[in-house]
Write a structure and sequence with these properties.
13% strand; 6 strands; six-stranded parallel beta sheet; 221 residues; Arc Repressor Mutant, subunit A; Rossmann fold
């Protein structure tokens, strides 16, 4: 008797990247693409309307990013597995994604078979990390490192990313479906936890800690 298909939703703000996913995954046994989205809100809607087994999601997307979407999906749809597929190799991104509820984290520099294997692994209930992410996580723990970003909650980390991208309090509130007052309170807590006094210092620290890079900041909105 054949096994049932693994239903997959793809979420990435680059259409050409999603096309590449679709072409790759549609050739694999059992993998069935049931929907595509370009941001965190669409990821949530896909989870509600297409009943996927696995959501493959980027983190850096316009509007509501991946971390907040992961939290919302995992809270509302506990049976769905989230697999992050991201350009970020900073271990803090992987830590925050797993805290939010993701079951896997694969870097976009990985070979295609790594992504495919990760899909089957998270569907079967395992935790999947690409080798490069597993290595940087292990090295950071062996070295006893505890970066300041690890003290941020998942929501604070997402708001930090959006602040550094020069999004306003109102834009962040709308994207995350929270009040401007909540954003302002988080903004204060982020600066307090990271030990900075001004937004300029916050941007400099975020660049130094690889939360964003200058290329991302220079992209058109």
């Amino acid at each position: 008797m054949s096994l049932p298909p693994i239903r997959i939703a793809l979420v990435d703000d680059h259409a050409i990247v999603r096309e590449g996913y679709r072409s790759l995954l549609s050739k694999q046994p059992r993998l069935q693409i049931v929907g595509e989205g370009a941001d965190g809100d669409q990821a949530y809607e896909l989870s509600k309307t297409t009943n996927p087994d696995v959501v493959i999601m980027d983190l850096s997307m316009p509007g509501q990013g991946g971390l907040e979407a992961i939290s919302r999906i995992c809270h509302r749809f506990r049976e769905i597995r989230i697999l992050v597929f991201s350009m970020h190799q900073n271990p803090t991104f992987a830590i925050q994604a797993i805290r939010a509820g993701a079951k896997g984290y694969v870097s976009k520099s990985s070979a295609p078979d790594v992504l495919i294997r990760a899909i089957y692994d998270v569907f079967d209930g395992g935790l999947a990390l690409s080798a490069d992410i597993a290595q940087v996580l292990a090295l950071s723990k062996l070295g006893g490192e505890h970066g300041p970003l690890e003290d941020l909650t998942v929501r604070e980390f997402e708001i930090l990313r959006m602040l550094v991208e020069a999004q306003s309090t109102e834009q962040i509130a709308e994207a995350l479906h929270i009040s401007p007052k909540t954003v302002s309170n988080c903004h204060y807590q982020i600066k307090r936890k990271l030990g900075v006094a001004t937004d300029i210092e916050l941007v400099r620290l975020a660049l130094r800690l690889n939360v964003v890079d200058l290329l991302e900041l220079s992209k058109p909105a």
